[in-house]
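DM from R.C. (forwarded with permission)

"hey, sorry to bug you on a friday — could you get me a structure for this? deadline for the figure draft is monday and I only need the backbone to look sensible"
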Amino acid sequence: MTSKIAIYVGARDPEWSLIIEASKKIPDLKFVIVCPNTPSKSIFNKINRISNILFIPGILPSEVASYITNSDVVIVPNPDNRYLLRNWGITAKYYQAMAAEKPIVSYHDTKDLENIGIPVTFNSENFISEIRLALSNKSKKYEFNLNNKSWNNICKDFINSIDNI
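My reply, with the result:
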């Protein structure tokens, strides 16, 4: 039985081929992928045959914190080059992991994340290597101020920006 967990919680499809490769190269790590988007039938059949991948087709927003806090590393395995089409910047999944002081490993995302201590990888070897490195840390503090990232503050900033138009 695996004792460590790498988790992805997100509404966007992950790079499944990367997760499958990582699961084979780190067989003692459980990859928990929480996403409301069901993978294609061929991918779904593959991941169901791999014992250290668990796909969960979505959870309630109120459950996200418990999934994040009960993991050992948070992974953000974006599909190759999607960030070039839509650079989302620092999203809620990063905020959640930073607040929980979890090590984070990103794949194909903006290099700006490196400024706050999140490794961004662009090939499977580096992604897998960074996961192994992250697993050696029980927690990680990030150089990012989360104090203003409450929903109320975000709404106030949004309304102020509209008022300034």
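R.C.: lifesaver. The helical segments are 16-25, 41-48, 64-69, 82-85, 92-99, 124-135, 151-163.
me: no worries. The radius of gyration is 16 Å.
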